[in-house]
Amino acid sequence: MNCFKHPDVAAVAFCRTCGRPLCQACQRSVQGTVVCEEHMPQPVVPPPPAPMASGTSPGLAFVLGLIPGVGAIYNAQYAKGVVHVVIFGLLISLVSSGAADGYEPLFGLLIAIWYFYMPFEAFHTASKRQAGQQVDEFSSILPLKSRRPGLPVGPVLLIALGGLFLLTNLGYLEFRQVIRFWPVILIVLGAYMLYCRLASYGSPEGEAHNEQR
User: Which range of residues forms the domain containing residue 157?
Assistant: First the structure.
């Protein structure tokens, strides 16, 4: 009897699964059992390891976030903790020094918003870490990092604010004149958030999300 695949070659074995005659080139041995190539067992690919869940507690992160900077430090984001403390102290110093010049209610509202933003942000980051997701040093509830390669918005914003207050302290600018244009911050922030939302629709993650919907 000849091989089923090579009729001009004599068979030397038979497939234990389908019974086909096999030549020396066509036979496959699996743990001492001869089979044909079609009935070779498929290699078992182990599933990717599940991400290690972090031991952080979102509830504890929220409570610690009520202390400026401590919630971020609890989430191992030390640079973000320093930024939280600096911004909170800067807002308070602007109101207490009288530099707000009539905008005290606005800065009081900003202080309240920032104070409650810190614990919620710490809770959000701790929840992502507990789920095993990767978080960077400046991860935030707001999209401070574009989904596409581009300019890092968070560091640029901090540099711009630092330069503005430095020029004010050196006497090159008057803060009361600059603060009149505070609505520009809302316009820029809204435009950037809109850009991130539109960019997400063009990304593979956004397309997958739309297909699921």
Answer: 144-196
CA 184 to chain centre: 27
Residues 72 and 131 in one domain: yes
Query: Which residues, including other chains, have CB under 8 Å from residue 10's CB and lie 6 or more apart?
Result: 1, 2, 3, 23
Distance (Å, whole) CA 40 – CA 27: 10
Q: Which two tokens stand for residue 112?
A: 């309240």
Whole-angstrom distance, CA of residue 5 vs CA of residue 168: 86
Q: Report pLDDT digits (tens) over 172-188.
A: 776 666 666 666 766 77
pLDDT in tens, 38-67: 777 777 776 665 454 557 888 999 999 999
Give residues with Cβ within 8 angstroms of 123, minimum separation 6: 58, 59, 61, 62, 65, 71
